[in-house]
Amino acid sequence: MAGHYTPAHRFTAFRVSCWTLGILAFAEVMSTAVALAARLDAAKEIRVVEKIVEVPKIVAVPVPTPAAAPANRTLPTIASALPEGAEPHGVLAKPPQTPVAAAPIGPAPTPVATPPIADPVVERLVTEARKARIAEDMGAAIVKLQEAASKAQDEPNVEYELGLVHEAMGVYDKASEHYENVFKMGATKAGNLYEQAAGKLRDGLQEPDIHGKLALGRTRIFKDAQYEDGERVVLTIPVQVAPGTTVGADDFSVRVLFYDTLKGKDVVPTRDTSIIKTEWASLPIDWAGGEELLRVTYIIPKQDEQDEHLFGHRAYYGQSVELNYKNELIDVQAWPRDLAARNQQALQIQQQQLQQQQPNGLPSPGDVPPEFLNKEELPRDFNPGAPLLPLPR
Do 258 and 362 share a domain, yes or no? Predict the structure, then answer.
């Protein structure tokens, strides 16, 4: 019957569809294979790249050696004390620095004699001042030299003798100023004093051993229980000198490293979010009374519940206090004591303190624990937020 659709017709249509799909799939596979083959052939091609390299020519040029100019004695600072860069868990406290002007470059020294003193009165005063200096009567020597300076200004013998007196007294900045004044006069006016002053400025002044003459006193710790925005601790750190010892404000520094506890057991350095403030409560640094007071305020901000749940409660544990003199660690106090073991050099110094007595009447703080203050022991007007008043000694 015409137009009747039989099963044979359905089977034929199915085979035609299958063959058509098969041919299309084969064509896709072949085109992909051809593309990959073309890419692989292109990758195998050898490419030659030319590069011109200029070879530098080395030409030796004689460099004249500059004449060594006398350099002024420069007192080193501790900021490079403080190990390059401050510790992330501590603070370096330095008194206000005293800038020292660079020594000017003067004429070349000439081998001449000491210039004579024209005024006989000035000559007599300088001679008497020298005798007083040799007898270690520095007060009388300075009085004589000041009188001589008032009669003859810019007299090289007076200036140089003033430098010797201040050097013997340990006032090295003042001594350098007088040597510098002689140096500025040049060899024509100052004679061989010019060369001697240049040597003092170039080589530096010989300073006595400071060990046993500069030390940390007993640290006082005040925990502010009324602080509501976290935890606040105020440290008062005395820096003491022996009688008759003078230490420049730019010669020493105090470094304080704080430590906290996590979850009440793990001891860790303080984190960056903590606040550390330092103030010298006894400015200017003149060692009146034999000590200067550094006030350090340490604040641990209040933790939110999420941080406290993840990392644990953070609380103040203690600190390590280091006293440096001209880039040298000379004294250390750590509380609790186990914190000293975290710094090998500090541990050695603390052990030395326990084995020997401090000379010159200074106490040996190595075996003295800090003093914990309560609110009743503080002055009535003491403000922990701005604690600049000295605590009772």
Answer: yes
